[in-house]
Design goal:
The protein is of the alpha/beta class. It contains 25 helices and eight strands. The chain is globular and about 65 Å long.
Length: 409
């Protein structure tokens, strides 16, 4: 694609990055067939190709409008288009740039600003946990968009003791929404790793991965969180005190694995963020080499399940094949279903900011899964788990929880 960037964008870091991405796009249209919003709406402006054209216009000097912003907002950032694209267009990086530029030029209606700011402040505050628990109790009274996010918490169960004695140590995320929403996931992860002689620790000074701020028009606030995590984790990793940062929420994992890109223009953190990247692993990446040991410890098979691979696992990190192989090796009876590549509609806060589209995608996903008649639906991301559970009576959980139960009988 030929580009003629406006003078204000031409010699900037974001302009050079966007220009390089835009020039890869050949308008082939392969992305349309795998874009969830295009499949629902049939409007090319709500497809990757259409959004790319709108961002190209913006960078070439066409003033954006609120309509432009709506088309970019409707993107789930699932990156399914990246998996499909034969030209290697880094759409996710481009839409990050486009959204930031539009947010600087277009003022949202006050109701949208209030909603987004409230979400951003609440989900990163100490009040989130008690308010979430209150929401679970009054769930039937809430709007559908909120009900789909509120899954009753399962008991965490006993935690392993004296894990600091293990020779192998890993870092787990702290101050995330997951412990408030589904504390059973972290607890199950810690028990499974303990069985393998791996200790888990939470590091002071670290916190949210930054995804919530980043996707709610507060990119610089997110970078502050990223820098704090780099500072908290990297010394321990490079000293050998711990071997990895283990993530059991693929949304957080995808975000952290993008730190090097988000901080590439920060002279104080670009190198640090790049050095952090090899240490960041999804829990499936850590467990895959030890599948045989875990399989020998199983007290009962995990059962008949449908594995929903979150977009952040399969399109952002490319870990769907590894995870599915691991689950099969661990005795999960995986049931195939149609359109596993499509987003379930959760996408972080998308189910609250775009409720109609989100629920339509959720129902489409669940219809496909139900046809496979699973006993349980398992996934790798807390947002997907809560979102799907809001539309089905079939139990939805993290696969590490099912594995933990199978190990304990």
């Amino acid at each position: 694609m030929q580009t003629q960037l406006a003078e204000w964008a031409r010699d900037t870091d974001f302009g050079r990055e966007a220009d390089e991405i835009l020039r890869r796009c050949v308008h082939c249209g392969f992305c349309l067939a795998t874009c969830p919003t295009y499949l629902l709406l049939g409007d090319e402006l709500d497809s990757p190709r259409g959004r790319i054209y709108q961002m190209k216009q913006l960078l070439e000097g066409v003033e954006p409008t609120y309509v432009t912003q709506q088309h970019l907002d409707r993107c789930l950032t699932c990156r399914n288009c990246e998996t499909t694209c034969p030209s290697g267009v880094e759409y996710g990086a481009l839409v990050d740039i486009g959204r930031q530029l539009v947010s600087e030029r277009v003022q949202r209606p006050w109701r949208e600003r209030l909603k987004r700011e409230s979400l951003r402040r609440l989900m990163g505050s100490v009040w989130f946990k008690p308010m979430y628990r209150l929401g679970v109790h009054v769930r039937p009274l809430l709007p559908a968009a909120l009900r789909s996010k509120l899954a009753p918490a399962r008991a965490a169960g006993p935690l392993p003791e004296h894990t600091e004695r293990h020779g192998r140590q890993v870092i787990m995320l702290s101050n995330c929404v997951q412990p408030a929403m589904l504390p059973s996931i972290d607890a199950a992860t810690r028990r499974v790793l303990d069985r393998l002689g791996i200790g888990t620790r939470f590091v002071a000074g670290s916190g949210c991965c930054g995804a919530i701020n980043y996707h709610l028009d507060a990119q610089e606030a997110a970078r502050v969180q990223m820098r704090a995590n780099v500072d908290a984790w990297l010394p321990l990793l490079e000293s050998g005190a711990v071997e990895a940062v283990i993530v059991n929420a693929s949304g957080c994992g995808g975000m952290i694995k993008d730190y090097a890109r988000h901080l590439q223009h920060d002279p104080a953190y670009a190198d640090k963020a790049a050095r952090l990247m090899p240490y960041v692993k999804d829990v499936a990446e850590l467990l895959a080499p030890m599948a045989g040991s875990l399989q020998r410890q199983l007290r009962r098979p995990p059962g008949r399940v449908a594995f929903h691979p979150p977009c952040t696992l399969q399109h952002w990190q490319g870990l769907r094949p590894l995870t599915e192989r691991l689950l099969a090796e661990l005795g999960f009876d995986l049931q195939a279903f149609d359109e596993p590549h499509l987003c379930c509609g959760s996408a972080g806060t998308y189910s609250i900011t775009q409720p109609k589209l989100s629920l339509a995608l959720r129902d489409r996903k669940l219809e496909a899964i139900h046809a496979a008649l699973p006993d349980t639906i398992v996934s790798s991301n807390v947002g997907c788990i809560c979102h799907l559970q809001g539309g089905t009576d079939t139990p939805v959980r993290h696969w590490i929880e099912s594995l933990d139960e199978a190990l304990h009988g």
